Task: inverse folding
């Protein structure tokens, strides 16, 4: 059901984003950078479950459009930090009503309490899987 829900999210948002010249993956990368969920390509790969080549291509595309910038870390020159440019923040701001309109349409039959419950339960579901390296019997204790 989770996979089907994800597929429907992509199927619904991709055409709306494409009208603005974006892919769903580009949108997700920009949102991860905006929200501080990933600070470099490696973290994006882990978060999005994509290979480094695919993530690098998306970053290259966004950088070429002036929406993302790369900056070498001062602490570790091997690390390249990613951030949104001011134009990237503005682009998210302009795309957000499109995304929220689609999301609100899908959630139109949900009460605000049900949306809160869905969010809480999805976060709990994700946290249950996010035990990195913990054996199931260790996670239960």
Result:
């Amino acid at each position: 059901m989770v996979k089907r829900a994800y597929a429907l999210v992509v199927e619904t948002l991709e055409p709306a984003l494409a009208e603005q010249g974006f892919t769903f993956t580009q949108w997700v990368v920009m949102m991860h950078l905006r929200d501080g969920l990933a600070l470099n390509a490696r973290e994006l790969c882990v978060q999005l479950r994509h290979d480094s080549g695919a993530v690098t291509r998306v970053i290259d595309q966004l950088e070429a459009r002036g929406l993302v910038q790369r900056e070498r870390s001062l602490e570790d020159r091997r690390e390249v930090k990613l951030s949104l440019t001011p134009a990237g923040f503005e682009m998210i701001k302009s795309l957000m009503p499109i995304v929220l309109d689609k999301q609100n349409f899908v959630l139109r039959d949900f009460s605000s309490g049900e949306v809160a419950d869905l969010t809480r339960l999805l976060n709990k579901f994700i946290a249950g899987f996010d035990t990195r390296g913990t054996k199931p019997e260790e996670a239960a204790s």
Summary: The CA atoms of residues 3 and 83 lie 29 Å apart. The longest strand covers residues 68-72. The two ends are 28 Å apart (CA to CA).
